[in-house]
Amino acid sequence: MSLKTPFYYYDLELLNQTLESMTAAIQNPNFKVHYAVKANAEDRILQTIKEHGLGADCVSGNEIKKALALGFEPKEIVLAGIGKSDEELDLAISHNIHSINCESIEELEVIDAIAKKHDTIANIAFRINPNVDAHTHHKITTGLNENKFGIPISEIDTAVDEILKHKNLALKGIHFHIGSQILSLNPFANLCQQANRVTEGLKARGVILEHINVGGGLGINYSDPESQLVPNFEEYFRVFEKFLNVEDGQTVHFELGRSIVGQAGSLISKVLYVKKGAASNFAIIDAGMTDLMRPALYNAFHKIDNLSSSGEQESYHVVGPICESSDTFGKSELPKTSRGDFLVIRSAGAYGQVLSSNYNLRDRAEAVYSDVMSLEEYIAPNRPLVSLAAQ
Ligand code: LLP
């Protein structure tokens, strides 16, 4: 098999194992997970996720189209997004999806007009900004007053007044999402408290909700992925069991993305040059920020291993080929590395391939799957592999 690096390698066994562990951790039959399609929208990934009975959390019309094409039922699809276009709303309404998560009072007017055109009633959830600190990177924090997302808690009463004026809207739920890569469970407990305040306030006004959507955000272990390939879903769901007040007949929705797909994907790249710089040794690889943006965008750390060498450990600055200094994967201790070695950049299954671009007119990295060939089989004909265990 001809091998074109860089490529994304997906471990379907690990993905299935993660999904099994996640579904087994759900003790409550009223808990339902919609996978956040934005984390990874590859067909085979979505198909695998669908097979485990998850719904789809979409943030664009094209994500809805993809979910529908892969067989997700409209009633299993939700749409979020602070700037939904009329076309996207039209698509969502014409398919009568489970919920349109509305992010502003201004948006209600537009959704109502489109629903009226279709002579139907659109299912609405208010996305509420709970002003809860997720204690994660500021660029992936979404639930603070300073963030652009959601309706402020102080505006909920006005939003209810407004929705009651519109005949083509039905308020079915509330929605929150406080951020991503959240490693402590405290922010989720704080979210539950805020959600309880909101539902009590709404109940006092006679508004009974069908669902409470608490978003996603559960983080993964980037620094030592092997030590926790499957996140602790039990602990995560237990927080909501314990702290979220749920009425009879109400369902609780989750929108997990990263925790489901993050560890199942790696970016495989070949070393082009090893160059002695004035300050460090550079390992220049054929993957760049166009393939995996996270380090350039968020200073994110991804563990790197050399699949082809078992030499002495040395220090390298691993960089891509793009003409930007932000095109770096960071400093890494690797066994002696040479031209032609294969490096694996771990934990790249979420927000990796989806964020890729063809800047510099580069080709986009393709996806290869573990059930077609193991990583060893992909790489071995090109260069002998050493066992990672031997390093
Ligand atoms: N629901 C909503 C409304 C969201 O905005 C997101 C992610 C999720 C669910 C899924 O969150 P997760 O479970 O994956 O944390 N590109 C960044 C992450 C951006 C997350 C955006 N929203 C990164 O590479 O870290």
Layout of helices and strands:
Elements: E1 7-10, H1 12-25, E2 31-36, H2 43-51, E3 55-58, H3 61-69, E4 77-79, H4 86-94, E5 99-102, H5 105-117, E6 122-129, E7 151-152, H6 156-164, E8 169-175, H7 186-204, E9 211-213, H8 233-243, E10 251-254, H9 258-261, E11 265-276, E12 281-285, H10 294-298, E13 304-306, E14 313-319, E15 328-335, E16 342-345, E17 366-369, H11 375-379
Parallel strand pairs: 1-17, 2-3, 2-10, 3-4, 4-5, 5-6, 6-7, 6-8, 8-9, 9-10, 12-14
Antiparallel strand pairs: 1-11, 11-12, 11-16, 13-16, 14-15
Helix pairs in contact: 1-8, 4-5, 7-8
Architecture overview:
With 391 residues, this protein is an alpha/beta fold. It has two domains: 80-256, Alanine racemase (TIM Barrel, Alpha-Beta Barrel), CATH 3.20.20.10; 263-390, Lyase, Ornithine Decarboxylase, Chain A, domain 1 (Beta Barrel). The protein is 27% helix and 23% strand. The protein has eleven helices and 17 strands. The protein has helices at 12-25, 43-51, 61-69, 86-94, 105-117, 156-164, 186-204, 233-243, 258-261, 294-298, 375-379, and strands spanning 7-10, 31-36, 55-58, 77-79, 99-102, 122-129, 151-152, 169-175, 211-213, 251-254, 265-276, 281-285, 304-306, 313-319, 328-335, 342-345, 366-369. The strands form two sheets. Strands 1, 11, 12, 13, 14, 15, 16 and 17 form an eight-stranded mixed beta sheet that branches. Strands 2-3-4-5-6-8-9-10 form an eight-stranded parallel beta barrel, surrounded by four helices. Strand 11 (265-276) and strand 12 (281-285) form a beta hairpin. Helix 1 runs parallel beside helix 8 (233-243) and helix 4 (86-94) packs across helix 5 (105-117). The two termini are 27 Å apart. The mean pLDDT is 94. Bound molecules: ligand LLP.
